[in-house]
Amino acid sequence: MKDGGPAFPRGTGQLQNGEHEWGSNGMSLRDYFAVHAPDIGDAAMWSQGESSIRIEAARAYRWADAMLAERNK
After folding, report:
1. Are the C-beta atoms of residues 20 and 38 closer than 8 Å to each other?
2. DSSP 6
3. 1 versus 26: which is more confidently predicted?
């Protein structure tokens, strides 16, 4: 999966083609990695408005994508 699948999967108890089927209503692994990206911004950035916040969010997801790429090697 491009988003890494569910971060905290839980089994549905059903088997499909011999494999366990997972169910999740939570965040993806990509979201989880983004939440835990290193904080390289500073407090002043957050007071500069929405564009700065979007830049920081994009950086966090670039970090998450790099984590997923490394994980899938």
Report:
1. no
2. B
3. 26
